[in-house]
Amino acid sequence: MTPRPTIVVLGAGVCGLTSALLLARQNKYNIYILAQTFPGDLNPDPYYTSPIAGANSLPVSSSGTPAARWDEVTFKELWKLKDTVPEAGIHEQTTYVMDRGIDGNGVIGKWWGELLTDKPWFADVYPDFKLLKTPEDVGPAMSAMGATSGKQFKSVCINVSLYLPYLVSECLKLGVQLRRGFCTHISDVAAQAAVKPDLVVNCTGLRARFLGGVEDEKMVPVRGQIAVVKNVSRGMVNLSGTDDGPEEVLYIMNRPAAGGTILGGSYQKGNWDTTVDPQMAQRILKRCLQAAPEMVKPGQGVEGLEVIRHVVGLRPLREGGVRVEREEIGGVKVVHNYGAGGFGYQASYGLAEDVVGLVEESFGVKAKL
To answer: What positions does the entry give for FAD binding (predicted)?
Structure first.
């Protein structure tokens, strides 16, 4: 009997865990996850972004691109999980995307892309899609902030403190083994995992910039600062830009299962600083409260926001697009899956399906998805 190939997935963020899970479901491989940091660690690596992400599904991808396919595949899976697996920490929320009409060529407008168009590809995928065309549709709070139009649809929000452990548990059920270690080079994987891999799946995020054998200089951080509060808004609210600066954005999302409400944020490309900017923190609280005044009682103001913590994360963005492809490095078969930036959660299943396909090509076996 031919032994099963051994695969080591390098990285335990949402893309690494989802890749390992879908590979394990093939029931053809011995799967190991090798990472320096895992979900639940008290002092996470500053490059380990998944535990501090928002996270939701906000389709910023352009029509006809691989990213749009990844988003659609993943949304359908997350939408199913919200109803069938409560322990995954996913729930449904009405999403409002408001457009000031002046931000299309700015940092946030370029990031959001098709999200601001009148006929986005996802209109037939995300339930209850409708355009908001009048001041009454937009509402007084957002009109006062410059919004002139928008769109509304149903999406999902994820409590990452529950979802990441759920992915780990699903992997463990299928026999995936976890190994803790740190690699400076792809060639270190065998020693760190204490097993000789037939293939490595590289899900190292920002560390792909420094990982020997890869050293991808297209990887850049996009600094995101958020506040987590106890208060609750009417839904997931997003605005195409703010007057606080070209790299500052407004978004609000209510996590399920006591996960708090996320108030954001910033999109600072090339900024490696992981310390909280107290002045930005106050701007975030102020503008989010202006957008969703229902979060506090009348007359309370910003003081009425019950802040749990302020957080900074580095989105692992790859200039030119996510790297999902095969390569051989020093005689080691490698499948890359990194560089999703701020859309790792919402593209995770689609990306992982591509990983399974590339692994299939590497071993000449047929995948079942």
So the answer is: 49-50, 204
Range of the domain at 37: 6-51+161-219+319-363
CA–CA separation, 233 and 292 (whole Å): 6
Residue ranges for the known binding site are: 49-50, 204, 251, 315, 342
How many C-beta atoms lie closer than 10 Å to residue 296's C-beta? 17
What pLDDT is attached to residue 367?
Answer: 53
For the chain, how many structural domains are there in total? 2
Could you list the residues known to form a binding site for FAD, using ranges.
49-50, 204
**Cα separation, 154 vs 240, whole angstroms:** 18
pLDDT band at 43 (very low <50, low <70, confident <90, very high): confident
Task: Give the three-state DSSP class for 102.
Answer: coil
pLDDT at 326: 97
Annotated binding site for D-dopa: 251, 315, 342
> Are 264 and 103 spatial neighbours (Cβ–Cβ below 8 Å)?
no
